[in-house]
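Example A, followed by Example B.
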Amino acid sequence: MAIGLVLSGGGARGAYEAGVLAELLPWLEERGERPTTFVGTSVGALGATFLASVAHLDAGEAAEALVDRWLDVTQERVIRPILTHSSPRTALRYAAELLGVPGVRLDGLLDPVPLAATADAWIDWDAVTRNVEDGTVDALAIVATSLETERATIFVQGRRPDELPTAALVDYVAARVGLDHVLASASIPVIFPAHRVESPAEVAGWYADGGTRLNTPVKPAVDLGVDRVVVAATHAPFRVREAHRDAVEPDFAIGALELVQATLIDPLIQDLRTLGKINELIPARSARAVGAATGRGYRRVPYLFAGPSRQGRLGRVVTAVHAEHFAGPVGAARAPDVAFLTRLVGGPGAAHDELLSYLLFRPEFTRALVDAGRVDARALLDERDPWRIGPPAPPERG
């Protein structure tokens, strides 16, 4: 049975995925359901590639290695300092563009140069290739967005060009996945500059974050032929109408969060609903016949969703960590970048903390996210069988 693992984007929320996988991957291995196809977007691309590089290890060791990488993350290993570097640089470049200074342009609000060295240190690229070539890894797929075609491009290692699926809204490209593909997948528009990919030559060009088109790439995993798919996500697979806890008029940060959720959460909801509805329409014993009759090759693909069970889960983690470590003048003095980001999104509050959860690459926060992921995964595995066929249902109110 071919099992696929899909890792969504979410910036600093990738630490939560690592915590989930630390509990989930050993459980899957014990059942003979260890994933061999890895598909990732944005920070999920980094996690998917890392797991492909350690796929020759036992599942527990591989997952804990990913956790260790996240526990070692600091803001300085992802972006250059905001107050002393990014903010002055952004202001100067913006002013130069307004004044028409030739050759100067603003390519992003933050400078992710340290991320390249961090990602390169995380991943043994030769091990990725060995694991693919010896069959330990069936396929590794990384999603980025082509700024030329404005479509999702999926770089796939482990398939020849003639073995790649075709799809209406995405382009599959056979490639040896490397650092540039991962960095391109993580180049959040506006926040980070676009990234240039040179290989393969036929699709060379500028790319941005894959999450802008395909943040939780469930369909590519199915297209690559998996029989079951594990979705490790940083968002709940539904939206629930709730009374807003911020009794203030919506501001910039709340509007920005709405855009983020529309980009990251709504496609996940739609993909899981579509997969669930197709699964329900196809009787397990006649899936092959239905595919032959329709010419579409539809088949049942059970899925396991591992992520927050409720909206706002990771925003509440930010709230708790901020209150413990960064509140007040002393907290602001020991972490001025955190204080700056907090003020930038309008200060504390439910929606503001939810937005901050994408940006805080602080050890205090990543540790709390890893712990939250472990807790949620254990709750999931306490169920008799977490595999699902139909669409996900929101939790009961309360």
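Example B, a separate protein, is given below in the same form.
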Amino acid sequence: MLAKRIIPCLDVKDGRVVKGINFVDLRDAGDPVENAKVYDKEGADELVFLDITASYQKRKTMIGVVRRTAENIFMPLTVGGGISSIEDIRALLNAGCDKVSLNTAAVKDPFLIKKAALRFGSQCIVVAIDAKSKAAKKKSRTGKKWQVFINGGRTPTGIDALSWARRAQKLGAGEILLTSMDKDGTKSGYDLNLTREISGSLNIPVIASGGCGSMEHIRDVLTRGLADAALAASVFHYKNFTVKELKEHLKGKKVAVRL
């Protein structure tokens, strides 16, 4: 059995780590480089760095912050936000990240996924999906349960999340970073239905994101939710528990993790 991964996330705005609820009401959570060094020392499997306003503000990811972060850690680093071309991907890989996360640009130009996978390898290409549940009336009429949003959760697309995840896989994505907008920052638990439906429909790994408030929430999404990895932010930033404590807890519950 492959080990499940624990992945802290740094949502970065104006050079600082921030965290909000349902993608709004952001508050400061520290310096990205210092946060990254702590998670590396605690034994996190990977780190995700998301420049959360880059696409909305139509600017590039903060290369300097990415480079300083990469220079101070030894775990794999995934970077997303404001990536819209092969040149952007190359610049970030050259700055030290191991994978790039495509979201808004991939929805607008799906063949960017294919071009990037062919150029750099599928293992480098993560497609991030920000999904929000649809109204009950629309669910029953269309059969589509979750809609894809872009521009940092600001813009609805009308695209069904499951269909988009399947297409992203077909185009060459090596991994899906799946965020429940309904659960984001609520600490009420991951959306297990969303995660299970998409994880069970793909052959590539799915990272679950949005809603973590306890160690048991992570255990649930890795087992009942069928996720390959769990991403969390505020529980780590505000020291609810450490990555090491979480992994020891999961191992005690018979969940395969790397200690």
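On Example B: Residues 136-142 have pLDDT under 50 and may be disordered.
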